[in-house]
Amino acid sequence: MIKNAENKFRLGEVATEIKAGFSCGKFELDKGDIPHLRPMNIDNDCNLTWEGTKYISLDFFKDKVDYSLKKGDILFNNTNSTEWVGKSCYISNDYECGFSNHMTRIRVNEKIADSYYLSQLLFGMWKNRVLESYCHKWVNQSGINTEILSNIPILLPSLDEQARLVELFQSIEQSIVRAQAQEGNLKALRKKLSNGLASQKPAFGNLLSSKNCQPRKFANLADCIEQHDKTPLENGIARFVGLENIQAESFQIQGWGNIAEGTTFTKRFAKGDVLFGKRRAYLKKIAVADFDGICSSDILVLRAKTETILPELLPYYASSDAFINHAISTSAGSLSPRTKWRDLAELALSVPEMQAQKKIVGVFQQIETTLAQLRAQTHTLKTLKQKLLNEILGG
Questions:
Q1: pTM above 0.85, yes or no
Q2: Least packed by Cβ within 10 Å: which of 45, 46, 240, 387?
Q3: 87-119 pLDDT tens trace
Q4: Can you give the CATH number for the domain in which 82 is found?
Q5: How far from 129 is each of 117, 124, 359, 368, CA to CA, in Å?
Q6: Structurally, how many domains does the chain consist of?
Q7: Are 218 and 349 spatial neighbours (Cβ–Cβ below 8 Å)?
Q8: Alpha-carbon span 82 to 291, nearest angstrom
Q9: Residues 116 and 213 in one domain
């Protein structure tokens, strides 16, 4: 913890510039010459992400080149829902780009502060919800303007101590990046194997051949469960799941709601069922239930027919490109296209015999075990970083 009073500053005292961005309104493009960064370009770990980036034309940008970003800049989200205000990221390269008026660029006086260290300090203040107390709140939004931002107090150790802490932060970040890269590679392998399994000519190393596979329809592999419960609490069911609780190809339910707090959902599912989002199937929302509950009517509850397929194998068929593309091609509706079970049931597959299935499940289980270990490693590293920030912030 930093206690020395001489290390107390206001943010404006360690910045050479604090500059809000500009709006582009009708000039915003999905494709174009110059990126125009918005709050969504800062992820929840306060890293810069280019996914979903909007663009502007060179002509629109020509008198705004001074908004470009330089290595060492910090982008600060100045307007958003209260819990997101203050989300910041360190800029690691020079970029010819603009940024939204909901973002503020901070340029740091390197004689006083290391910009990477300051970015981590702001990250810690955001994670600990310290910045919420500085927000000006209005209907559905909050903000921290340039004047308020300039007056936020911060504590800084010596530059030598900052450099030491930066080295530690970066070491942790590099370890996180490596673990996440390994996780990404394993997910890509899992996807490749799933696609091979569900292809017209199944392939899974040397485990499959025309001799040990039989033609089946998806209806031969799974039942679509339509069991409803209007009094789930009385039957010991406490949780419900919506589409928002299922992420793309994660295979895991990401949160849930409490039935006691109210829901209109009635469709039952059981532990081990595969939940598939039938609305906007291109979002690839698939999860294996790890508890009994109820769910949205926009979720298909698939239960393996154990005489034909091992339950552990069903989610890999349901996540394959063959299944997803069939779901997309059979969807109807312009705003919220939905597929139907009767169409999915007709998908033709070639399914291996049980002995081969057991070996395939063993491969997938090893992948899932390693993925869980990598996720745990990433969580541990992020926790370590947060504890370090808490110590610096005096939390």
A1: no
A2: 387
A3: 999 999 999 999 999 999 999 999 999 999 999
A4: 3.90.220.20
A5: 18, 8, 48, 34
A6: 2
A7: yes
A8: 33
A9: no
